[in-house]
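Because discrete structure vocabularies remain unfamiliar, it helps to consider an illustrative case, giving the amino acid sequence and backbone structure tokens:
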Amino acid sequence: MLLDRSGRACNARPMAAFDAELYLRLAGEAMILEGPNPRQNVGWSSPTTDAASALVAVDALPLETAETITRDYEIAMSLRGDQRSRGAMFRVGRGPQPSGTPFPPARVAVSGQTVETSWGSITVHHVLLGDTSTAMHITATDRSPGGFGMRNIAPVVRDDRGTAMPTFFSGGGGSNGYRGELSGAPALSPSTAWIELDGTRIDLRDNPVQVEVRIEELEPSTPAERHLRQLLASSGPGPRFANPDSIEDVISVLVACGAIQPEDRAIKEVRAVGSAMQGRNATDPDLPPRWRSVMSRSRNPFPGYHDSNDGGRTIVVGAATPAIDGAYVRVDALIVSAQAFAVEVAVSPGHALGPGGWGPVVGGESLSWWAEDDRGNHYLGTMTGSSGSDDYCRSTVQFGPPLDPAAELLMLQPTGSAHRAVVTIPIGEERA
């Protein structure tokens, strides 16, 4: 059975006769016959992964069957020298998962202090101090010959209780600077007043803002509608994004299997978004209001990763959400720069963050990251890196377009299939 939409209600109707496995295999054969990929900038998406993900999303094909077929054709394309496919890196979808775990309280302290080293400098922007983990969010400048300072960075950090924590760096950057985090074990004391890095004492300040958190129910929708809308909202830079051209292929799959009608409002919406993303028409009346807000201020809604040593302004948030369709989110800090703004988050279970860009994947739809300010502007976010496990992941979610300098409130909106959290963060006082 499939869900059919009538007004705002979702009603069951029988699926038309449709051989999903045959459809997917024919898509794979067509991909091989087509030869080199004619699309531009499609990352690691392909007709088979797109079709398989759509069929799994509407329960037209079991996840295991879709994975087996897709892997076979992706490997076949790799053996033929096609750079689009990465059969060896094809990731197994996680499918339905148990709910995540609520987050225990964690302290986020601000510093902003810069430590001079023998090879350059490290600026500590904020520190996450949990019961089991410690992470220092930093930017760094490497002035050593050949840039070997950051390559070998592994300082021991100490707290005011005498605990020594060997660390390792995870992040990225280049000649303009590095950005990432220093983390390690054992965890430092959550109540420490200072930490010591490379012989320099760094004082920590607690100045969290007053944050409001609530859960909102989304307008009812069918699995096919949710899949189409989430596919565009989770696009972004890197190897795993949905090219707007590929949306027509996904629409064809969903219509063919009877999961959606050709005249459905969601189809008109995603086509309008795809057209706007390609710079053709950002005033289409079918363009949803929040997409119109984003696209009217930036043709590319995904800001990408800024490997700048400008750490921006850090606003401590320290808020955790109730369950969002089984997923829990903790928002640690908001970082605002001239190019974009970003939030440091943790998510449980980890798969709710998505595949993170590493290879084709079928199944396991993730949260979408939206935000809105008190001036009516909307923003769209994408992951720029993550670490953790299937149970728990930390990530930086970067948003675009740049934040309106006149905004006083920012409403962060991590969005699931049926609900979204709204985390309201005061930002006006930070501009003084």
Notes: DSSP finds eight helices and 19 strands in the chain. The two ends are 57 Å apart (CA to CA). Residues 212-216+304-431 form a domain with the Immunoglobulin-like fold (CATH 2.60.40.1640). The mean pLDDT is 81.
